[in-house]
DNA transport machinery (Exogenous DNA-binding protein) (Rhodopirellula maiorica SM1), 108 residues
Amino acid sequence: MMASPQKGFTLIEVMAVLIISATVAIIGIRHLQNPGDLAHDRSCRLSRELLQHHVEAYIDDTQNAPSSSMREIATDVYAGRTLPTCPVTGRAFQLGRNGRVSCTDHPE
């Protein structure tokens, strides 16, 4: 009697499918993470730009730059009683020597 050939996959075929599937999954996960990071960066940048506008208005009105913590513009006339913070981390923005508002977590 002749033995019939067995049907199924070899170990090498199964391993190849697993490696290809894992590679596709890793690539897919990376693409899902990037839009969130871009949104965080954009949100922080827009908050910095808004605060920069208030700093420039303060300089126009007083002819002086505010301190690095920008406490001087925490009034109803400028930024409101509470200064905006980084929307991602909640940390305070800083005013650099160059007169630009910056975020330690999201550098330009």
Summary: The chain has a mean pLDDT of 87. The helical segments are 11-62.
